[in-house]
Amino acid sequence: MEIIEVRGGRTLSGSITPPAAKNSVLPILAATLLCGGPCRLRGVPRLSDVDTSLALLSAVGARAGWCGRDILTSPVPLLRGDVPPELAGAMRSSVFYLAPLLVRVGQVRLPVPGGCRLGPRPVDIHLDGLAAMGARVEIASDAVVLRRSGRLHGADFTLRLPSVGATETLLMAASCAEGTTVLRGVACEPEIEDLAGFLSACGARITGAGTPVIVIRGRAGGLDGGSYTPLPDRIAASTYGAAVAAAGGDITIRRCRPAHFGTFLDFLRATGCEVRTGANAVRIRRDPSMPLKGGQELFACAFPGFATDAAPLAAAVLLTADGPSRVYDGLFQNRFACAAGFAALGADVCAEGRELKIAGSAELTGTVVSAPDLRGGAALVVAGLAASGKTCVLDEGHIRRGYQSLPAELASLGAACRTA
């Protein structure tokens, strides 16, 4: 159990650089299994989910490890298709190993994936798309088994909803399939473009990534190796923005891509923060003597809409705003498990299904709260910055899944935040 201790009442200042995006790194690590040459991923943060990914790669017979801040992988002739249950259960992103292992081994058995308890997160779109490419699918009570005879083949497949994970799974499968695959109704998130960028650097032939239709011409000889730098983490950047909005101050987020979290920056502007964007930087200022503006109506949905991972962070900002607000998550049923922690801090909130109602004008007082999941835990840390006294966030490992050291990052900006 980790305890993050936050003392409110201190404004933030300085500059900070977000790390490589967790939501890019994890599928790219799985995609290295498709490569017949060595791969190098630059500037990877040391997250617990990355550690789990490396353990999973090792468990199926791959070679991967750290070299300073980079991860190096080396090709191996034979892999195993069984994903250990303890690793599959540790993170949702284990689903990314379905396609690479099916391509390389010919069959794969994946126990039910784990991760944050955000509600039902079905993998039916992954399976339907792989079946359209020639995979045979068997679903047991505790695992999914896929088999193929011969190579996977191209298909014209329409996703029933723009699932990020399914889009990434099918991108990986199609890159090494026979013939051309057309994926329609796909997710358009920046991390989709990033995975396509890595696959293309390794020889894949992909057009349309970042749009609703992606065309992939399968490469019969498989992919090569390559060196790649994942994009900056837009959710980490949003976290820093939420922190200065909650605490007040003046910070600059450097080496980021403002367009990737533009909806969050628009939200901060609506609350009264001053936001100035450049090509690769954002400056965010908030006078702590001026109240934040409430009356916000946020709807989290697929990109380019408001990011679901940023919804709890926005809610933390709105706790002390001068009027009521509502945040609705269109993707996950249990996104606002952090509401109990907000209430313990003194906020008047009500979580009803996918919606969080926030009365605003809260006088937050530090107390002991528990992180229910990754982003909800980060939101409680942000709320602690706006509270009087000491807030202790008890975390069973959720926050380290997405932040290398959130307390140290915030402390570098002047926050009184540390791991106790």
Automatic annotation (TrEMBL):
GO terms for molecular function: UDP-N-acetylglucosamine 1-carboxyvinyltransferase activity. It comes from the Bacteria. Signal peptide: none annotated. InterPro entries: Enolpyruvate_Tfrase_dom, Enolpyruvate_Tfrase_sf, MurA_subfamily, RNA3'P_cycl/enolpyr_Trfase_a/b. Its main location: cytoplasm. Keywords: Cell cycle, Cell division, Cell shape, Cell wall biogenesis/degradation, Cytoplasm, Peptidoglycan synthesis, Transferase. Its EC number is 2.5.1.7. The keyword Amino-acid biosynthesis does not apply. This is UDP-N-acetylglucosamine 1-carboxyvinyltransferase. It comes from Gemmiger gallinarum.
